[in-house]
Amino acid sequence: MVNWLVDAVESCCGAMERGQRRWLDAQEDACSNWLSPAFPLSRGDAERRFDGGLLAGAALWQAQADTQRELMLAAERLWVEMARSLQRQLPDDDAAPIAAMRRALELGCVSGAAMSTASRQAGHFAATRFSATPLKAARDVRKALTQR
After folding, report:
1. Which residues does 81 contact at the CB level (< 8 Å), separation at least 6?
2. Three-class SS string for 48-113?
3. Alpha-carbon distance 70 to 119, whole Å?
């Protein structure tokens, strides 16, 4: 019984370590981009610096979203293992209260996993699709201004 709990804690710690590394890498990129020397730049260099700043912001968003997704996966695994452990502890007889408890555990596990999966997928979609939206918008505005 303790083994699945240890595995869950190790999984969460691993997700946090990887998330911390991603977050620090994204912060380093953001700082080097945002704090680079300010001197007169050509139009192309200014656009690249501006785009780089937006990409750095997207990387920061993506780093936290990836960590959240990994932690949700770890929570899903913990949920499943906890339900299995509880089911193994139930007596093998088919008495009505035991059967009802067994069905409730199964239903709770399945519905919890489905909701967690849907939430994780929605978060992943939002992070991957919307993190680059400011950069796309800036490029669209730049394109519209140059066409005038």
Report:
1. 4, 7, 8
2. HHHHHHHHHHHHHHHHHHHHHHHHHHHHHHHHHHHHHHHHHHCCCCCCHHHHHHHHHHHHHHHHHH
3. 12
Q: Largest alpha-carbon pair distance within the chain?
A: 81
Is residue 77 within 8 A of residue 8, CB to CB? The reply is: yes
- Tell me if 45 sits within 8 A of 90, measured CB to CB: no
pTM for the whole structure:
0.69
**For residue 136, which amino acid is it?**
K
The span from the CA of 109 to the CA of 7, in Å, is 19
Check residue 120 and give left, alpha or beta (phi > 0: left; psi -120 to 50: alpha).
alpha
Cα separation, 12 vs 127, in Å, equals 21
69-119 confidence digits (pLDDT tens): 888 888 888 888 888 888 888 888 778 888 888 888 888 888 888 888 888
Which amino acid is residue 10, in one-letter code?
E
Q: Which residue, among 54, 39, 80, 38, has the nearest Cα to 136 in the 3D structure?
A: 54
